[in-house]
C-alpha cells in the first residue's frame, strides 16, 4: 500500500484501486484506522 504522508508518527496510506467507498488508512504505532470520505461533487 503506497505511503502518501508521514507526520508526528502517523502514516497515511491509500490503495489506488481499492474498493468503494473512497477511504484511506492511518497508522500510529500499533493502531490503525480506516477513514472513509465522501468528496463533494
Give the topology, please.
Elements: E1 3-7, E2 10-13, E3 23-28, E4 31-36
Antiparallel strand pairs: 1-2, 2-3, 3-4
Order of helices and strands: EEEE
Low-confidence stretches: none
Tally of domains: 1
Radius of gyration: 11 Å
Q: What is the overall pLDDT average?
A: 89
| Terminal residue distance | 26 Å
Helical residue percent band: under 10%
> Strand content of the residues, in percent?
over 45%
- Largest sheet descriptor: 4 strands, antiparallel
Tell me how many strands there are: 4
**Order of neighbouring strands in the sheet with most strands:** 1-2-3-4
The shape, in one word, is elongated
Q: In DSSP terms, counting alpha (H) and pi (I) runs of 4 or more, how many helices?
A: 0
- Alpha-beta content class: mainly beta
Question: Please, could you describe this protein's structure?
Answer:
With 41 residues, this protein is mostly beta strands. It has one domain (3-36). The protein is 0% helix and 51% strand. It is built from no helices and four strands. Strand 3 and strand 4 (31-36) form a beta hairpin.
Outline:
The chain has 41 residues and is mainly beta. It has strands at 3-7, 10-13, 23-28, 31-36. The chain has one domain (3-36).
Amino acid at each position: 500500500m503506497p505511503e502518501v504522508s508521514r507526520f508526528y508518527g502517523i502514516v497515511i496510506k491509500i490503495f489506488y484501486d481499492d474498493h468503494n467507498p473512497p477511504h484511506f488508512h492511518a497508522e500510529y504505532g500499533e493502531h490503525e484506522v480506516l477513514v472513509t470520505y465522501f468528496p463533494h461533487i
